[in-house]
Amino acid sequence: MASSATETETVRASHILIKHEGSRRKASWKDPDGRVISATTRADAAARLADLRDQILSGRANFADLAARHSDCSSARRGGDLGTFGRRQMQKPFEDATFALKVGEMSDTVDTDSGVHIILRTA
C-alpha cells in the first residue's frame, strides 16, 4: 500500500501529444474533423514524436515551441504545460511515466488511450 506521502505527491509536467487512428477521440484543436488523425498510424505518430524529441535533446528546438506547434492537446497553447497533478488524475501509463521522471527529464514515447506522448517533468 502506498504511504500517505506518496498519496499527496504531485508533479508538474508538459507534454506533446500526437493522436492517431487508435486514439479514443479523433479530433483536436488543429484537426477538428479528425481527418489527419484518422489517417495517422500509431507508428507514424511515434516516429513524429521521436523526431521532435531528437530536436529538443540536440538543442535545435525548444519543448514549449514544438508543443505549441505540434501537440494535439489543447495544452499546446500553454506550450504543453498541464500544470500540477497528483496520482490517479491522468491515464495510468501517463501518470507512471511522469512520476518516474526526475525534474527536467524528458520521457521516451508513452502510449495512452489519447495517443502517443513525450513528457517533460517540470516540477
UniProtKB/TrEMBL annotation:
InterPro entries named among the record's database cross-references: PPIase_dom_sf (IPR046357), PPIase_Pin1 (IPR051370), PPIase_PpiC (IPR000297), PPIase_PpiC_CS (IPR023058)
GO cellular component, one term: cytosol
Location of region: Disordered: 1-31
Annotated keywords: Isomerase, Rotamase
Reaction catalyzed: [protein]-peptidylproline (omega=180) = [protein]-peptidylproline (omega=0)
Gene Ontology molecular-function annotations: peptidyl-prolyl cis-trans isomerase activity
Annotated signal sequence range: none
E.C. number: 5.2.1.8
Enzyme type, top EC level: isomerase
Domain PpiC stretches: 8-123
Task of the protein: Prolyl cis/trans isomerase with specificity for phospho-Ser-Pro bonds.
Family: Belongs to the PpiC/parvulin rotamase family.
PANTHER family in the record: PEPTIDYL-PROLYL CIS-TRANS ISOMERASE, PEPTIDYL-PROLYL CIS-TRANS ISOMERASE-RELATED
Designated name of the protein: Peptidyl-prolyl cis-trans isomerase
Higher taxonomy: Eukaryota, Viridiplantae, Streptophyta, Embryophyta, Tracheophyta
